[in-house]
Amino acid sequence: MASQVAPALEADSFAEVLDDMGAFAVRQPGVVDRDRLLRDISSLGAEDTVALGGGAFLIHLRTDAVTGVVAVLGTTQAPLRVPTEGGEETRGRVFVLVAGSPDAPGQYLEAVASLAALMRSGGVVDEILEAGDPEKVAELESVRTAPRIQKLSVVDVMDTATHRIYPDMSLREAARIVMRGRHSGLPVVNRNDEIVGIISEKDLIRAFLPGYLRVYADEETPREEARDKTVRDVMTKTVLCLPIEASISEAASIIVNKNVDPLPVTKEGKWVGLISRRSLIRKLLQF
Prior knowledge:
The chain is an alpha+beta fold and 287 residues long. The chain has 13 helices and ten strands. It folds into two domains: 2-150, Mannitol-specific EII, Chain A (3-Layer(aba) Sandwich), CATH 3.40.930.10; 156-284, CBS-domain (Roll).
């Protein structure tokens, strides 16, 4: 563990934290392309940074520059302002960087969840700051005995199915439901909750944009086409679903490697939940 803890960082800004953490991370086992990893880390921003509370932050990325998972920890001399996904700027001194290979989604997600849980344990951040050097940090009981979260189930990380969209629903009503939710799309179900399609923000843009453009072109009946359409007219009918019995690794692999986002979850053929990239990370950080 001591080899994964960087000496005190001399960074005076978040950008310098990324540079220093990157320079330390490229010396870790599992790095196969140092230059690529440095570039990938230096390009990270608020959307890749999660505030864990207590002045600790988790920075995460997927990259072909590593095999498996590379995780390092660093601390700064003084609290720094850090931009996070929520848009706020908070201050902190403890930074955890997790870089995972696209070929190891389960290992990556479990590492993110385990490290987030450690940092959120009461008093751990203060213990790390007080310990200071890498050897002392590694010797902390809270660090040595930190449990590793394993065998997460799909139920643990999915968002439960709530709002329904039906094929005969008007496109406008469906758009309002999608925009009220936290995902970029929703499954379309029949009255038995069986998935018959999916409608995404992209589908809605394709449907409504022509009408918007005709308004400014002074054409007649500017939005009649979209107004008269139902969900059935624009939904994608081929849907890749995940059975609830599947592993979290299978879910992560489909989302990352097949670019399916969101991913519907089914039980006995009926829709029961959704998993997306962002919801997956948010849920994992709660463990």
